[in-house]
Write a structure and sequence with these properties.
Keywords: DNA damage, DNA excision, DNA repair, Endonuclease, Excision nuclease, Hydrolase, Nuclease, SOS response. This is Excinuclease cho. One of its GO terms (molecular function) is endonuclease activity. Helix content is 30%, strand content 20%. The chain is of the alpha+beta class. It has 3 domains: 101 residues, GIY-YIG endonuclease; 97 residues, no CATH class; 62 residues. The strands form 3 sheets. Strands 9-8-7-10 form a 4-stranded antiparallel beta sheet. It has a 3-stranded antiparallel beta sheet with strand order 2-1-3. A hairpin with a 2-residue loop joins β4 and β5. The longest helix has 15 residues. The protein is elongated and about 75 Å long.
Length: 287
């Protein structure tokens, strides 16, 4: 009986009674096949329903119309607007900025994480440090960006297991002076705690394992313009300390984008780090 009731409820889920949202057809007429950000608006003038990005706005918006799981959002939508960008980088940056500011109902909420932390290596020993206390944009030897202390230590534990590192030397458990750790007797520690390998060898394996998640320091003295050339136009994205400050068409307009927020923007870092450091985009100094 309970199974029949559950099955009956599933038949009336929004996805199961999906109907094509004909009321949104007028919004589709001007959608371009260009990169950019699009917005589904509901009744509220201040809080959109959904903000997305794509290298092809028209194609991506149309894909929402073919997705029954989005029926609830589509029924609430009243019209769709868009903002074209020069390319994918501009779309990624603008989407993240708009979601944080406008907090759309159907997007994953992006908020400043006050527990954002990293692993800092000092004298060969890792410790958890927090972005609210340390300038991650200019601090060397940071490894990984983690939502909280538990996530950082979990990563360190995983590396210890993979590399047979000593939990005592990593600060994850206490060592008794003159005695090997318990994991050494099981062959799960290579023995840096009891002289079977040197502390230097132990630390080298730790650093080698962490290198893939090294946090790159901001490589310029101040803000720069990242030039993105698109099919229809060119844009210059103003960036400082991995923060996206805005986009201009002409570098002379950049003087209005001078305020860099405090803290560290992990979303901006993840979007910008590889594209900027790869040399893919021309960089203009604003000094």
């Amino acid at each position: 009986m309970a199974r029949r009731a559950a099955s009956h409820r599933l038949e009336f889920e929004p996805a199961a009674i999906y109907q094509y949202p004909d009321h949104l057809r007028p919004s589709l007429e001007g959608l371009p096949s260009l990169p950019g950000v699009y917005v589904f608006h509901g009744e509220s003038e201040t809080m959109p329903l959904y903000i997305g990005k794509s290298v092809n706005i028209r194609s991506r918006v149309m894909s929402h119309f073919r997705t029954p799981d989005e029926a609830r959002m589509l029924r609430q939508a009243r019209h769709v607007t868009f903002i074209p960008t020069a390319g994918e980088l501009g779309a990624l940056l603008l989407e993240a900025q708009m979601i944080k500011v406008q907090q759309p109902l159907f997007n994953k909420r992006l908020r400043k994480n006050r527990q954002l932390c990293s692993l800092h290596i000092s004298d060969g020993k890792p410790r958890v440090v927090y972005a609210k206390e340390l300038d991650f944009s200019h601090t060397p030897d940071l490894f990984g960006l983690y939502a909280n202390r538990h996530a950082a230590l979990e990563t360190l534990q995983k590396i210890a297991d993979e590399q047979r590192l000593c939990l005592g030397l990593l600060g994850l458990e206490k060592l008794q002076q003159g005695r090997a750790c318990f994991r050494a007797s099981l062959g799960r520690c290579a023995g840096a705690c009891c002289g079977k390998e040197s502390p230097q060898q132990h630390n080298l394996r730790l650093l080698t394992a962490l290198e893939r998640v090294r946090v790159q320091c901001w490589p310029w003295q101040g803000a720069v313009g990242v030039v993105e050339q698109g099919v229809s136009h060119q844009q210059i994205h103003i960036i400082n300390n991995w923060f996206y400050l805005g986009t201009v068409e002409d570098l002379a307009q950049a003087s209005s984008l001078t305020t860099t927020p405090q803290g560290f923007d992990s979303d901006g870092y993840k979007i910008l780090c590889k594209p900027i450091l790869s040399g893919k985009y021309p960089i203009l100094s604003l000094l």
